[in-house]
Amino acid sequence: MCGIVGYIGNREIKSRLIEGLRELEYRGYDSAGIAVMREGRIESFKAVGKLSNLEEKTKDFSTKGPGLGIGHTRWATHGKPTELNAHPHMGEYSYVVHNGIIENYREIKEMLEKRGITFLSQTDTEVIVHLFELEAERYEDLFLAFKATIEQLDGAYAVLLITQKAPDTIFFARKGSPMIIGRSGSGEIFFASSDAPLIGEADEVAYMDDGTVGFVTSETLHAEPDSLCFVPLQGDKMTAQKGGYRFFMEKEIYEQYEVMSDTMIGRVLDEDIAFEEIDDAFVDGITRIKICACGTSYHAALTSSYLFERLSKIPVNVEIASEFRYKEPLLTDDTLFIVISQSGETADTLEALRMAKEAGLKTLAVCNVDNSSIVRMADATILTRAGIEKGVASTKAFATQVMVLWMLSLYFAKRRRSMEHDAIKDELRFMSYVPKVLQKSLEVHEKCKRLSKRYLHGHGFFFIGRDIFYPLALEGALKLKEISYLHAEGYPAGEMKHGPIALADAELFTIALMPKTLLYEKTKSNVEELSARDSTILSISPEMFDLADDFILTHPHNHPMLEFFEMMIVEQLLSMEIAIRLGNDVDMPRNLAKSVTVE
After folding, report:
1. d(Cα 121, Cα 90) in Å, to the nearest integer?
2. pLDDT value at position 599?
3. Which among 265, 382, 367, 394 is positioned nearest to 2, based on CA atoms?
4. Best label site of 50, 147, 267, 358, fewest CB within 10 Å?
């Protein structure tokens, strides 16, 4: 969820770039940088952490008169968050910023290294600037060199490039990653990843289509294949940050297929799982796993317990962190202690981690916020790369936590030899389908919107499921009660007859998770028991169910986790639409905070 800005004009360039990046902070980042063309030479500044660190580095730097510059906030994918890995990346006389993933960067990098080019970073982005300078030796026209460079890139990208060979020009390209160009009445040119940095600066904007490539100076704008279509820029900065969605929660639900790709990149390989954050020695001697978390993160942990035991054949114990602190737990040094937290500041989870550290256990954090307290304390951390999540009710953070834990269970399976090589390859193949499944599952949004009006009253909701769909039922119930303030409970489907079924009547709504790949007939029997007691049934399944009062059809899949992620989005959308119909602010539900920093 990185951010890009660019500027051509007569005002002080550094300030324009940093202020633009500040408007993109909501996208999430762990480092930032700018490159400014001044008197035909480029000066670059980069810093790890917040923009205030970059401001401190540039406090004595300023420009006067016409010039240009590019800037970037980076969320680490290839390589750790360091100054060397931060953008802009430089060649001998050019600098580039880039959002997205260059899928064939390894092949390009190997080719360039054979030609004697030395790389400074671990990123995929750096290949762009070196490839451009190589092409510039072949073409007298630098735009032709830039086009030749872009044509060799596979994957997704939004690219801005500046070069001392054309000190008045910014080259740009877009495929699969958003980028907007704006201009003001005074002739200034702006680039940004979203509307937010452009509001109050540009008078009109053009939203680049996939495949757009071009260049701009203060006097010339050229874009291919078609000229850009400029429209007046309207709205406020908060609306722009929401990207046109009604709520941040809605935006974050729709972002899940993008951030899932970020979570997986460099980790899910053709035949293996790779975590640069840990190595085989880290898991040596581990015979059991204990996971501590709260709320949504606890549901991700419960989901992973099925995966670890099924795939890795390693015993897993999942604890609610607020209870773990006071139970005088038995901790042995053959246990890997995993904590999960979106913010990295969850007080109960942080204290549980401290207890494990004091007991001498190896500790691993799964977290979304680098440099948070939990990340600093744990022996190792796997970042989920979800980007900033502004909605209090977690969506994309939960999805990426589950994915990291699924990957980790496969990592253990490979090292413990609990799965055959072909079985691991199959699991990796299904894993690679998840972003597309998440994108496809958004098609049910309108159905959820229409159904929501039927679920505004009654005396409560049961969310039921089996196996990994039981924790998903817990998560669905939590989402609904967090933002709608309606009573909802998640249960294992087989537990209905052990008490809860006493509540069944026409005013009890049952949300039944009925995957075809896992225990379908068993779950169906449990739903039939509730239907016989006149409970109102909403079936979420790829197969129609005769006794269901309502249904949301999901796509057929060949792996339970693909059904899991699709049903996850259905739960999120349905909960959000019910809450919206009730007139609630789904981003800031009453009594709740995004980061729980007290007991």
Report:
1. 10
2. 55
3. 265
4. 358
Domain tally, the chain: 3
Give residue 593's pLDDT band: very low, low, confident or very high (50, 70, 90). Answer: low
> What is this structure's pTM?
0.76
Structure tokens at 272: 């293996």
Asked if residue 227 lies in contact with residue 213, where contact means CB atoms within 8 angstroms, the answer is no
CA 362 – CA 287 distance, rounded (Å): 12
Q: Nearest 5 degrees, angle CA 234-CA 211-CA 46?
A: 70
CB 134 within 8 A of CB 140: no
Domain check: are 164 and 34 in the same one? yes
**Residue 328 burial (CB < 10 Å; 0-12/13-18/19+)?**
exposed
State the residue range of the domain holding 503.
Answer: 443-599
Which residues carry out catalysis? Answer: 2, 594
**Helix orientation angle between 434-441 and 421-432, rounded to the nearest 10 degrees:** 30
> How many residues can be counted in the chain?
599
Strands 41-48 and 67-74: unpaired
Running DSSP on this structure, what letter comes out for residue 310? Answer: I
Which CATH number covers residue 392? 3.40.50.10490
Angle at 221 between CA 1 and CA 204, to 5 degrees: 65
Which DSSP category does 502 fall into? Answer: G
Given 241, 265, 291, which residue is the final one in a domain? 241
* Torsions phi, psi for 451 (to 5 deg): -70, -30
Same-domain status, 218 and 313? no
Which DSSP string do the residues of 549-597 spell out, in sequence order? SEEEEPPP-SSHHHHHHHHHHHHHHHHHHHHHHTT--TTS-TT--SS--
φ, ψ for residue 175, nearest 5 deg = -155, 110
The helix or strand, by DSSP H or E, that contains position 173, with its residue range, turns out to be: strand 166-175
- My answer on whether 249 and 375 are in the same domain is yes
364-396 per-position pLDDT tens digit: 999 998 778 899 899 999 999 998 888 989 999
Domain boundary (388, 412, 432) is at 432
Report how far residue 202's alpha carbon sits from residue 38's, in angstroms, rounded to the nearest whole number: 23
Residue 144 lies in a domain: yes
Same-domain pairing of 265 and 317: yes
Give SS3 for 221.
strand
pLDDT in tens, 63-73: 988 999 999 99
